TrEMBL record:
This is Heavy-metal-associated domain-containing protein. The lineage of its organism: Bacteria, Bacillati, Actinomycetota, Actinomycetes, Micromonosporales. Gene3D superfamilies: 3.30.70.100. Keywords: Metal-binding. It comes from Verrucosispora sioxanthis. Residues 1-66 form the HMA domain.
Length: 70
């Protein structure tokens, strides 16, 4: 399954690493791709992820989940 999220506050490689580490720690996540230019994070997972879990991981990394793109 592929899901894309709009994440605010990311602007450098360290931001990418923080968001990626937080999301890959979630059960079932296989891959995380961050696009700084569009502020979008695409997550590929074995199944659907609970938005609350994604929000918590992004919050814990120090960023804000602005919404689900797809």
């Amino acid at each position: 399954m592929r899901s894309t999220y709009h994440v605010l506050g990311m602007n450098c490689g360290h931001c990418v690493q923080s968001v990626t580490a937080g999301l890959t720690a979630l059960p079932g996540v296989r891959e995380v791709e961050v696009d700084l230019a569009t502020a979008q994070v695409t997550v590929r997972s074995e199944g659907a992820l609970a938005t609350a879990d994604v929000q918590r991981a992004i919050d814990d990394a120090g960023f804000d989940l602005a919404g689900v793109v797809s």
